[in-house]
Amino acid sequence: MAGEIGGRPKGCFLDGDPLWWVAPIKKNERTEEVILQMRWLGNGRRSSLDDIPPISWKGWKRQRLEPKIQGFLFPVSWSLILAAVGMLFLLFDQNKGYSPWVGTTLVLLSPLSIIIVAYLLLESRQFGSAQEYFVTSLKDVWNLALLSLIAMSIWWAWDAKMDPSEPFWFIFLVFSILSWLWWTTRCSQCFSIQSSRWLMPVDDSKEISLPKSWVGKVSHSKWAAKELARLPLVDGFLRLSGDRVNGVSFLVLEYISKLGCCADPWVGERQELPLKGLANFFSMEIDMTPINTQLRGVDMSFLYSLKVSWPAWAKPEEVIEPEEE
Q1: Within 13 Å of residue 90, how many CA atoms lie on the same side as its CB?
Q2: Residue ranges per structural domain of the chain
């Protein structure tokens, strides 16, 4: 698209499009006045929870990532329909001559559809990485237990040639519902939380001297357009990487939560995430307070000597307030 910088429209490199933070405008309502009003509303929402980083983060600027929770809601509804239809097949298949594997496949497709949607949403978000998210999910006891139980149940039903009338088939419905709840809760936390990267333009010819608390990910001390180091935290880690945009070299800081998704560490405590009860039950709650406290004790000024002037094209656009009638 003409006028894009770093995959974003001109003036939106750091703050993103204000329309990301409002409901989609219907085609028959897309007038200039409505768009102006929604942009002003989105502009207020996207910065309403911003907190100020400590002085050692001088020179760094927030680059907001596109929220994806709206794109997640519709697929969740359809995944429930798959589970409901599968349950009906399991209830009545022995009377209609259907194989019980039809109902089993449908109920297992319910959580699988959530996984597929999560992958597509993460990959569609600029700078998003589905790999970290799914690798982290394989370390969770709940997910590992459910995957193991489902695999064992499939093997048992297949090997034993289970009779269609056996109540054993309903165990797939139980495991499917638990897996659906686990994945829906996990995705809702990651897609709802405020997500941002922090950028600083740097002279890529200078060496980067890391403190001992950081774990280096490259064999040299030079800038590179990839992950450079990690700082382990109480929950998750802070990732330092390099990125080149429009000929300018940047250092990038990202907080990766224990769920494997990017979250902005400098967001106020008023942020409310959905499915709080289930998040606590599955130990998925993302509490930014201890992270915020820990990061305020980390001195980031060791990178400031690499900083150069911000490019003019990175300046955010001014969002015009609509006139009152």
Answers
A1: 22
A2: 16-24+32-50, 70-189
